[in-house]
Every structure is written in C-alpha cells, then in structure tokens.
Design brief:
Helix content: over 70%
Structural class: mainly alpha
Oligomer: single chain
Distance between the termini: 17 Å
Strand content: under 5%
Number of helices: 6
Largest sheet: none
Order of helices and strands: HHHHHH
Length: 181
C-alpha cells in the first residue's frame, strides 16, 4: 500500500477518536451539562467554557474524515468517499455555526442534518452485508436525538458512535489491505 493511502486511512481512525474523546472528556467538565440530555454541540456553543476544545474536536474529525475519504475512494467506493467528504464539510459547518452563534440555528441545524444523513448512509452505500441494517439503526438513533428532547444526548451519541465505529472499522480494514471490515 502506498504511504499516502496509509496516512489517509489513519485519518479514519484519528478523526473519530479525537471527536469522541473531545465530547467524552468535555462532557464531564462543563457545569450543568448532562450528556444524556444535552447535544454535543452545547459543548461548542457561544459562551461555553468548552467551546474552543470542542470546536477543535469537530475540526479534527473533519480533517480525519477528509483524509479517510481519499483512502475510501480507492479501497471502498467512490460513493462512500463522496459521503465521507460531504460529512467532513458538514462537520466544519457545525463548527462554523455554533449554537447561539453566527447564522443562528438554521446553519447549525442544516450542517448537523447533512452530517447525520451522510454518516447514516455510508454503511448502506458500501453495500456489504449488514450495511443497510446498520445504516437504519444509525439513522433511527439520530432521528430520535432530534425528536426526543429528553434524551437528545443519549441518542445522538449512540448514532454518532455507531457511525464512527463503522468508519474506524473500515479504515482499519484498509490499513490491513482489505476493502471491507
């Protein structure tokens, strides 16, 4: 495997790890924040003491996913790569339009929705066994995070973690010279 492809695949591990690590740690540090109820974006909201590190977590995920997209193009499919690239851009949008920030909630919501949709679609588009079922579970959790305000954080973290785990698994399979997890 070429060195650039290997480095790109590492982005599919490092990006999700940075993102999950950021919300996992920062969610324990912000006063009056409840990870079961509050969305991850609350950690990067205007005025939040955790705004800078959570924004860095979003951006690290974006960079990692953009690199992963380069590797996915050659080892998974062009459609998975395109979804990963759009997800990386959507995540930059989530960081650029924080809660209570510039652009109001529309920019943030549109970016988050695009990120949710592309993340949920990746396993199904990849076309491997179980991919459609996994996509359905991810999508269901992310939809529940929007409609069930009492457990937004729980459902959001569940859907995002499942999607990110799929990205990590496929990135590791690329690193091992296989094209499926």
């Amino acid at each position: 495997m070429h060195r650039p492809t290997r480095l790109a695949a590492i982005g599919g591990v490092a990006g999700p790890a940075a993102f999950i690590g950021a919300w996992g740690v920062l969610g324990t540090r912000l006063k009056h924040y409840n990870p079961l109820h509050d969305p991850i974006s609350r950690l990067a909201a205007i005025g939040s003491s955790t705004r800078a590190p959570m924004t860095a977590g979003f951006l690290a995920f974006s960079v990692g996913l953009a690199l992963y997209a380069l590797s996915a193009r050659d080892h998974l499919s062009r459609r998975v790569a395109a979804l990963a690239a759009v997800n990386a851009a959507a995540t930059i949008g989530v960081a650029a339009f924080p809660l209570e920030g510039f652009g109001g909630s529309f920019g943030h919501a549109a970016s988050a929705f695009t990120g949710y949709a592309t993340l949920a679609a990746m396993p199904a588009v990849h076309g491997r066994r179980g991919g459609k079922a996994l996509s359905a579970v991810i999508a269901a959790a992310l939809v529940l995070s929007i409609v069930d305000e009492s457990h937004t954080g729980l459902f959001q973290r569940s859907g995002l973690t499942l999607g990110d785990a799929w990205i990590v698994a496929t990135a590791l399979s690329i690193l091992q010279g296989r094209s499926q997890p």
